[in-house]
Every structure is written in structure tokens, then in C-alpha cells.
Amino acid sequence: MKRKIVVAVTGLNNTDNPGPGIPVIRGIRDSQLFDVRIIGLAYENLEPGIYMHDHVDKTYQVPYPSTGSDALIKRLEYINSIENIDVLIPNFDAELYTFMKSSKKLLQMGIHTFLPTLEQFEERHKANLVEFGQKYEIDVPFSTSIFSEADIYSLPNSFSYPVMVKGKFYDAYIAYNAEQVKMHFNKISSKWGVPIIIQEFIKGTEVNVVALGDGTGQTIGAVPMRKQYITDKGKAWGGITLDDAKMLELTRKTIKATKWRGGMELELIKTNENRYYLLEINPRIPAWVYLAVGAGQNHPEALVRLALGEKVEPYSDYEVGKMFVRYSYDLICNIGEFEKLSTTGEL
Amino acid sequence: MQIKKNIAVSDSGFVFDPTSGESYTLNTVGVEIINLLKAGLHEDEIKHKILEEYEVSASAYDKSFIDFVAMLKNYELVEYAD
After folding, report:
1. Which of A44, A173, A197, B80 is deepest in the core (most CB within 10 A)?
2. Are A39 and A21 in contact (CB under 8 A)?
3. Residue A2, number of CB atoms within 10 A of its CB
4. Closest A-chain CA to B21
5. Whether A222 contacts A316, CB under 8 Å
6. Closest partner residue to B18 among A228, A239, A321, by Cβ?
7. Measured between CA atoms, how close is B19 to chain A, in angstroms?
8. pLDDT digit string (tens) for A42-97?
9. Are A61 and A78 in contact (CB under 8 A)?
């Protein structure tokens, strides 16, 4: 018999640049172990997941992370008093810090999370990637952080164009000269603040791994993927699972060395010489996680079990050549739903 | 020269490289040559079989075969025994 649990999930922005919320929910709903009630936590009242009632049982608006953890905790206390949440899965980079800081308070409320430690979260930051690569002997592109336009003109001579210009949380653009760096600097910093990371451009094929660490150094699951179709925002619109021992080895090495706790996505570049460079570690489950579920590794289910303190056996296999193709779909909603969410903060 | 062991080739001519995730399509003769390579036949044996089966001159075959093998190498679908 399936066990009844309540799981709260953020990242319901299932747009053309989707958050991982809906794929995470699909994974948990596929579970043969859990009979789950899904509580959506939304920041914006037009996040599509709010209106996807087959996936989300009830949604509550929550305050933006920038308002601080006190406001968030207060809101979660209210939600929890109604819903009795067992597990909470945050899915946005920008909110993770707040949830990690609040994890003890959440646990006191009976809400389990399974997140990286603050140290793990900080050391894999894009701005710290060079030190991360040196510490764990992993190839990474050379990069440096800049804080003002003036810094652009004093970039180290070791940089040659093109370079990648990246925001601390999101956005990455290629720049072929200093003027383009300046343009991207202004665009990204106005949205996400500083620092802006200037990274060596590595030519090759972008490949990714979705993985889950149990916090002791063990890899619970890992599935490598190549994006087959990329949107203008660099997001995968189609992808295929790979049989790539080197990518899996690199993932296990990273998880073992860092004792990674929680979901993660490794963004890698495979060069023509078959060398792998680590571009980023995203400290959460990626939006394409349902491909892993389809290939035989249900990472969202495993994460819920880990959060509940259960022992989870590592996945040993997955189906190679499994593909995903994203699609867009117009949900028809009544104004009454929008009104209810806008006025009461609940739907 | 041999086709890498993990390369999947279907009868329809669809080739899938599970390491890179790339896929390719072959015509009938391409499928036949790949399958002969997979079966371990030497290049001379393959040439003999194709020339027997199709109306093609040895020089035209050689040119096409060299192009085909160059493509297989470029896409990293073949490997060489030590």
C-alpha cells in the first residue's frame, strides 16, 4: 500500500525557461511508494504549475527570498498548520540559501528537506569554480569575477576572446570583445547583481549530468545527457541519455569528494580531444530531471526518501538513448482562479 | 578498423552512438558495409562482396569507400585494434 505524504515544491514556472517544479512533481507522482499530496509554493501568480491541477493539489503564494527568511518561515508556519508538510523541495537557485539557513527551523516544524550544506553550496559557486577545480582536481575553465564596468578593461591578459559572461545565479552570454562584455555586464547585473563571472570559452559539446548525492559521498543516481535542441536562452528543448563512463566517473568523483547532499546538475563541456571541463554545478535538481525518471532513475522519489531519513540503495543502471522533447501547451483558466490566488494568496 | 562495439545500427539504416548521443542515417549500401565491418570482414573482403553485388567500378568503389571511412573516423564511430 502506498504511503500518504505531503510534499511542498517550488519552481512551478513551467515556462519556456522552466523551473524544475513540475518535472519533480511528475517523478514523485510516478512513485509506487507514495500517495502524495502536492503543495505548490509560488512567487508569481502566473506560474503555470499553479493552474495544473492534475499535478498540484493546492498552491500558496510565498514571499520572495529577498524579503528574508523570517517572512518565509512565518508564511510556511501558516501553510504547515493547514497542510502538515512532510517534505519541502526548493527548486530555485536564488531561494536555496534561505531554505538551507532555515532547514533546522523547518525540521522543528516537521518539514524535512534534503539540501546541500552551506559550505557545499558556497564552494561550488560560479565565482569560486577555479578554486573548486584546484581543490578537487577537476578541469574547469579559467574564470574571474568582476564587480564594475571598469574591471572589464583590466581583465587578466590570460583571457582571449571570446569569453563567457555569466550571472551569479542565471544567464550566460558569449562576448567577442570588451564592448560586448560591457553590454552583457549591464544586462545581467541589473537583474542579478554582482559579481559577474568572466569565464574562458571552451569549445566543444555541452553535456550535462543529473545526479543525487546522499551526503556521505555516495552517488544515489546519475544520468548523463546531451542537449539535442537548445533554445535561445540556452535551455534544452530536447535531449538524449548517454552511455558515457567518463561523465559518470567525474560525477561520482565530485560527489565523493564534496560529500554532496541533495540533487545536482553538472554542466560540462566535452572538447574534441575528449576532455571534460566542469562549467557549473547547479545545486538542485534540474528541469530535465524527468528524463532520468523515464530512463529508470526516479531522483525526485529518492530525494524524498532521503529527506525522510530512509536508506536508499543507489541506482546502478539507466536506459541509454532515452529522449525527451519539450512542448508548450495553452492551459485555459477561469479568471476566478486568478482572482482567488491574487486576493487570498491560495488556490 | 572496426565499428565501435556500442554503436547501434538498425536495418533501416539508423545509426546511434550512445557515447555522443549523435544519430545518423545510412543508405542501403552504407548499412551493408557497416554490417560487414561489424561482422569483422577485412576491407578487401568487403570490396570483393560489394563489387560482386553491385554494378560499380573498382575505382568508383575505392573513392566512395575512402570517403565513407573518413566520415566514420570523423564521427568517431570506428576504432583500431592495437
Report:
1. A197
2. no
3. 10
4. A242
5. no
6. A321
7. 5
8. 999 999 999 999 999 999 999 998 888 899 999 999 999 999 999 999 999 889 99
9. no
Q: What is the pLDDT of residues A313-332, one digit of tens each?
A: 999 999 999 999 999 899 99
- Residue range B7-28, pLDDT digits in tens: 999 989 999 999 999 999 999 9
pLDDT value of position A129: 87
What are the backbone angles phi and psi of residue A117, rounded to the nearest 5°? -75, 165
Q: What is the pLDDT of residue A152?
A: 85
Residue-wise pLDDT tens digits, A16-46: 889 999 999 999 999 999 999 999 999 999 9
- The answer to whether A255 touches A211, Cβ cutoff 8 Å, is yes
Mean pLDDT of chain A: 93
CB nearest to B19's CB, from A225, A239, A244: A244
Amino acid B79: pLDDT: 87
Q: Which domains does chain A show, CATH number per domain?
A: 3-114+330-344 (3.40.50.20), 142-200 (3.30.1490.20), 203-325 (3.30.470.20)
Chain B residues lying within 8 Å of A240, measured CB to CB: 21
Q: What is the pLDDT of residue B82?
A: 61
**What is the side-by-side order of every strand in the sheet holding A323-325?**
A276-282, A261-270, A205-214, A219-230, A236-241, A323-325
Task: Name which of B19, B22, B79 to mutate to probe chain A: the one with the most chain A Cβ atoms within 10 A of its Cβ.
Answer: B19
Q: Please give the grid coordinates belonging to residue A154.
A: 583590466
pLDDT tens digit sequence for A174-224? 999 888 999 999 999 888 888 899 988 999 999 999 999 999 999 999 999
Contacts of A244 in chain B (CB under 8 A): 19
Given 3-state DSSP classes, what are the helix, strand and coil percentages for chain B, each rounded to the nearest 5? Answer: 50, 15, 40
In whole angstroms, what is the distance from residue B28 CA to residue B13 CA? 7
Amino acid at A80: N
Between CA A274 and CA A277 the distance in angstroms is 10
A326: its cell numbers: 519539450
Residues 6+ apart with CB under 8 A from A170: A93, A94, A191, A192
Alpha-carbon distance A135 to A119, whole Å?
Answer: 14
C-alpha to C-alpha distance for A274 and A210, rounded to whole angstroms: 20
A301 vs A294: CA distance, rounded Å: 13
- Which residue type does A36 have? V
Which helix (H) or strand (E) segment holds residue A219: the answer is strand A219-230
